[in-house]
Specification:
- Helices cover 19% and strands 41% of the residues.
- It has an 18-stranded mixed beta sheet that branches.
- It folds into two domains: 2-118 and 255-266, Diaminopimelate Epimerase, Chain A, domain 1; 123-250, Diaminopimelate Epimerase, Chain A, domain 1 (Roll).
- It has helices spanning 30-40, 74-86, 131-135, 159-164, 169-172, 216-227; strands at 2-8, 17-23, 45-50, 59-64, 69-70, 93-98, 101-107, 113-118, 123-124, 139-144, 151-156, 179-185, 195-201, 206-209, 231-237, 241-249, 252-257, 259-266.
- The longest helix is centred in the N-terminal third of the chain and has 13 residues, at 74-86.
- By secondary structure, it is α+β, with helices and mostly antiparallel strands.
């Protein structure tokens, strides 16, 4: 059984967000999937198998952190589409059946992949107790996405503040259903990105996720409303970073990025 490690939302190895990818004939039991994800020990490991022709989707897709299954994951979907395309197992747009619905992934002529995800709803909420202390930074605004991805989108003052955060992960754990996304406008948009972000998800076993595709289904509408543009580019990460291009299309958000395969081997269990 082949297992791949793919760096997503980057065009070079050892950047972006690494994901494990296993293509299967069918899903084994959940306990086995979780044990494999724990062994891989990346923020997410994706498991996919082909579906019968003629249905609404081509592949079934699931994602596991080292501790739990998640409802939506962007970077591991990108990694899975990259593996399927590289193996010559599909042409045109891939359709994945996942917990969050049907997701599309289209290989572009420039080598990137564009994914079609549901747009997250944003609801402004008061600053939760302990959030400022947990982040160690003043908060400009907070929006809740609990009906969709289960994150808090937390606006901070500037890019430097986002980059310099050293949050208390234990304190963040109970502040949202899934995690906390901090964001700010780019200090210098001429560098090629419009906003920055970082994602902290200790509640699902990930203190910090380098580049979170699903978070951009909330960041895209948030910053599109501020900038008055539907097409934006986000840079996410602390020590390890990646680039996500977003295009807001009403209730759908297109996420575009590169992916690079870095490791391939045999899973002997």
């Amino acid at each position: 059984m082949r297992i791949r490690i793919v760096d997503a939302f980057t065009d070079r190895p050892f950047a972006g967000n690494p994901a494990g990818v296993l293509l299967l004939d069918a899903f084994p039991d959940d306990h086995w999937l979780q044990k494999v994800a724990a062994e891989v020990n990346l923020s997410e490991t994706a498991f996919a198998h082909p579906l019968p022709a003629g249905g609404e989707a081509d592949w079934a897709l699931r994602w596991f952190t080292p501790t739990t299954e998640v409802d939506m994951c962007g970077h591991a979907t990108l990694a899975t589409a990259h593996v399927i395309n590289a193996a010559g197992l599909a042409e045109g747009t891939l359709r994945f059946a996942a917990r969050c619905g049907i997701l599309g992934a289209t290989a572009e002529a420039d080598g990137t992949i564009t994914m079609d995800f549901p747009t997250s709803d944003l609801k402004p909420v008061p600053v939760p107790d302990r959030l400022t202390e947990a982040l160690g930074a003043d908060v400009v605004s907070v929006h809740d996405t609990s009906a969709h991805i289960g994150d808090l989108v937390v606006e901070l003052e500037d890019e430097e503040t986002v980059r310099g955060l050293t949050p208390d992960h234990a304190a963040l754990k109970d502040l949202s259903d899934r995690g906390v996304i901090v964001t700010a406008p780019a200090e210098r948009p001429e560098r090629g990105y419009d906003f920055v972000s970082r994602g902290f998800f200790p509640g699902v076993g990930i203190d910090e996720d380098p580049v979170t595709g699903s978070a951009h289904t909330a960041l895209a509408p948030f910053w599109s409303a501020r900038f008055g543009r539907e097409d934006l580019t986000g840079r996410q990460g602390g020590a390890r970073t990646g680039i996500v291009r977003t295009r807001l299309r009403g209730d759908r958000t297109l996420l575009n990025g590169h992916a690079v395969s870095v490791i391939e081997g045999d899973l002997n269990v």
